Amino acid sequence: MPRPMDLSSAAVRIPFSRIDWEDITFCLAPLLAAEIPENLRRSVTRVGILHPPLVREKKKNTFQVVAGRKRLQAARLLAAQQSCICLILPPTIPEATLFALLLEDNTICRQLTPVEQAIFFQKALHYVDEEEAARLFLPALELPPHPYHIRRLLGLLELEEPLLLGLHNGFLDESAARELGALPFKDRMTLFEVIQDLRLSVGNQRKLVAICRELATRHRLAVATLLDDQAIRQILASPDANPPQKAANLMAWLSRKRFPNLSEAESNFKKFVGGLQLPGNATITHSPSFEKDTITLSVNFADQEAFLKTWEKIQSALAEPEDS
Questions:
Q1: Phi and psi dihedrals of 284, rounded to 5?
Q2: Which residues touch 204 (CB under 8 Å, ≥6 apart)?
Q3: Among 29, 34, 11, which residue's Cα sits nearest to residue 84?
Q4: What angle do CA 173, 175, 180 make, to 5 degrees?
Q5: Which one-letter DSSP state was computed for residue 110?
Q6: Which member of 14, 152, 201, 241 has the greatest number of CB atoms within 10 A?
Q7: Which spans in the chain are helix H?
Q8: What is the pLDDT of residues 242-290, one digit of tens each?
């Protein structure tokens, strides 16, 4: 990493009119997600900017925002001020140093989203090569300094804007997003719409994509065609179910399609148990996924005395047969 810089004497009040707002060289947020966060709005309204933005001098007496763009935007819009104290960086500072400062500023209090990380490297690679970028910046993201991780992040930027925004805002899982990226456009957007409408958890997002890909391959169908099944349409359009209920019904339907033999075995087992007329304190379960033929009887007793009374009656019946 570049050497630490002494910025203690570089604090200067800059008029907003001298900031080049059109220059987004160091902006990491997707443009469609560039609004000011509500918590920042409230903070700037109450006390102004506590953490001075970083700007670099440009020609014609203007300044380029390196870090703190949203802080500046919030101050301009909400604090009824015409200027803001910023830390001024000289025009000769190397771009690699600027990106290091940008990364430090953005990771002080939070982790960059996967989309922000991808945009960071997309921009940094205009000034440093892949090997140098990996060495300089990946450790700050707690990633090994190998270019593979940069290429993996950059692949996310091939996703459509709605998916990028979902990933950036945290309701689309990164692993699910990568799986979606491997699908044709219509399949990808159909699955994303389901994820978005049902507000699927991370686990269900991954299961949905994996099961749909498996079933589509097995039946030689497009995923969009698979999800156009009448039964699925009825689940998704049900007026009597909320999103979590629809999600549970959809995952159950897909699981039955994925493991038809298991679903049939489960149905037969339920019929078997239903015909036993078990008392309320007893349950019978099968082995996981019916991997074995064994079944387990569980009985609840009020106390040890109640257990011992029953144990005396069933002990001999439960004795293991002697080896012949």
A1: -125, 130
A2: 198, 247, 251
A3: 11
A4: 90
A5: S
A6: 14
A7: 38-47, 69-78, 95-107, 114-124, 130-137, 147-155, 161-169, 174-181, 185-198, 202-219, 223-226, 230-237, 243-258, 260-274, 304-318
A8: 999 999 999 989 988 887 655 566 667 777 778 778 888 888 887 766 5
Distances (CA, A) of 182 to 175, 186, 197, 235, 260: 11, 12, 21, 26, 27
The secondary structure of residue 19, as a DSSP letter, is B
Is 221 within 8 Å of 186 (Cβ atoms)?
A: no
- 3-state secondary structure at position 63: strand
CA dihedral 58, 63, 67, 68 (to 10 degrees): 180
Tokens 């945009």, residue located: 119
Where do we find the tokens 């994509």? 209
Residues 6+ positions from 117 with CB-CB distance below 8 Å: 141, 153
Tell me the residue type at 283. Answer: T
- 78 to each of 14, 27, 55, 72, 293, how far by Cα in Å? 17, 21, 20, 10, 69
What single letter denotes the amino acid at residue 174?
E
Gap between the Cα atoms of 240 and 231, Å rounded? 15
pLDDT digits (tens, 9 = 90+) for 119-130: 999 999 999 999
Residue 136 corresponds to which tokens in the numbers above?
Answer: 């300089």
Which residue do the tokens 């220059």 mark? Answer: 23
Quote the CA–CA distance of 153 and 283 in Å, as a whole number: 50
Residue carrying the six token digits 């489960």: 266
